[in-house]
Design brief:
The chain is α/β, with parallel strands linked by helices and 305 residues long. It is built from 11 helices and 9 strands. Strands 7-6-5-8-9 form a 5-stranded parallel sheet. Strand 5 (149-153), helix 6 (158-170) and strand 6 form a beta-alpha-beta unit. Residues 147-298 form the Aspartate/ornithine carbamoyltransferase Asp/Orn-binding domain. It is an enzyme of class 2 (transferase).
Length: 305
C-alpha cells in the first residue's frame, strides 16, 4: 500500500511519471473519466480551503468517482473518536482518504491504521500535492527540470519544504530566500540535501536576493500561514525586501512567477506581476486538479489488474 505524505515516497522516475500523467489527463480528460468508477474518496478537512477542496471534489467527479467531504463539524479527529478509529472505519467504506490537517502526526496515524491510500492535501510540514502541481506547471514551460533554477522567497514553511524535497528528487535547483531566522526546518533541509546528492540538484538557503540572479522561476507564499495568529503588521517590514515585484524580476532576470494562493496582493507579490505576462499562477491553480488526479489514479488503482 503506497501513500503520499511528503513526495519522498516516490523516486525521480515515478514523480516524472505522475507529472506526465497529469499532463495527459489535462490534454484528454475523457480518456480517464472511468478511472475511479464505482469508487469513493473521503476528503477530510481540519482547515478551510478553496483550491484544495474544489480541485479534489471536481477532480474525483471527472474521474468517475464520488467524493465525501468531512469537516470538523462531523467531529474533530482525535477528539470525538480516535484517529485510529477514523482510519479503521473509513477504510471499510472508501477507496482512499485525502486529509488536510493541522499536524503531520495525524497523517502518520491515519497511514498506520488505514487499509486504503492516504494523500496529504496539506499539513504543518508539507504540501506535496501543491508541489507536484508546481513542478507540472514548470514542466509545461521548461523541457528539462534538471536545468531549471527555482527561487522561493518568503517564509520557510510547508510549501518551501515540499519544493525543496520534490525539487531535490527531480534534480531541480532550489534556493530558499528568507530573512534570517525564517528559513526552512533544518532537518527537512538536510533530508532534501541527501536526495539532491543523488539527483545532482543544488539546494541553498540565503537571505540575499543577489544569490538568485539568472534564475528561471520565482515562487512566493503568504508571510503568515493559516492558523498562525501573528499580526501581518509585525512581520511586514522584515519580509517586504523579499516581495516579488517587477523590480525584482528585472534585477534577477527571472522569467516566470508562481504563488500557491491565497495571495495578499501588494505584500508578498504585487498585482502587476501577479496579473502580468510572467505569471503562471492560474495555470498552477488549474494544475492542482490535474496533478491530484494523477495521484488519485495511481494510488487508488494500485494493485488493480
Amino acid at each position: 500500500m503506497r501513500h503520499l505524505l511528503t513526495t519522498q515516497e516516490f523516486n525521480q522516475d515515478e514523480l516524472l511519471a505522475l507529472i506526465a500523467l497529469g499532463k495527459a489527463m489535462k490534454a484528454n480528460p475523457a480518456a480517464y473519466r472511468s478511472s475511479l468508477a464505482g469508487k469513493s474518496v473521503v476528503t477530510l478537512f481540519e482547515k478551510p480551503s478553496l483550491r484544495t477542496r474544489v480541485t479534489f471534489d471536481i477532480g474525483i467527479h471527472r474521474l468517475g468517482g464520488h467524493a465525501v467531504y468531512l469537516d470538523q463539524q462531523n467531529g474533530a479527529m482525535g477528539q470525538r473518536e480516535t484517529v485510529k478509529d477514523f482510519a479503521g472505519n473509513l477504510s471499510r467504506w472508501c477507496e482512499g482518504i485525502v486529509a488536510r490537517v493541522f499536524d503531520h502526526k495525524t497523517l502518520i496515524e491515519l497511514r498506520n491504521h488505514a487499509s486504503v491510500p492516504i494523500i496529504n492535501s496539506l499539513c504543518n510540514l508539507y504540501h506535496p500535492c501543491q508541489a507536484l502541481a508546481d513542478f507540472m506547471t514548470i514542466a509545461e514551460n521548461y523541457d528539462d527540470l534538471t536545468k531549471v533554477k527555482l527561487a522561493y522567497l518568503g517564509d520557510g514553511n510547508n510549501v518551501a519544504h515540499s519544493l525543496l524535497l520534490t525539487g531535490a528528487i527531480l534534480g531541480t535547483d532550489v534556493t530558499i530566500v528568507a530573512p534570517k531566522g525564517n528559513g526552512p526546518d533544518a532537518q527537512i533541509f538536510n533530508e532534501a540535501v541527501m536526495l539532491a546528492n543523488k539527483s545532482g540538484a543544488r539546494l541553498a538557503v540565503t537571505d540575499s536576493i543577489e544569490d538568485i540572479r539568472g534564475f528561471d522561476v520565482a515562487y512566493t507564499d503568504t508571510w503568515v500561514s493559516m492558523g498562525d495568529n501573528t499580526p501581518m503588521d509585525t512581520v511586514k517590514d522584515k519580509f517586504m525586501p523579499y516581495q516579488i515585484n517587477q523590480g525584482l524580476l528585472d534585477k534577477t532576470g527571472i522569467r516566470h512567477v508562481l504563488h500557491c494562493q491565497p495571495a495578499h496582493r501588494e505584500l508578498e507579490i504585487t498585482s502587476d506581476v501577479m496579473d502580468g505576462p510572467a505569471s503562471l499562477i492560474l495555470d498552477e491553480a488549474e494544475n492542482r486538479m490535474h496533478a491530484q488526479n494523477a495521484i488519485l489514479h495511481t494510488l487508488i488503482n494500485q494493485g488493480d489488474k
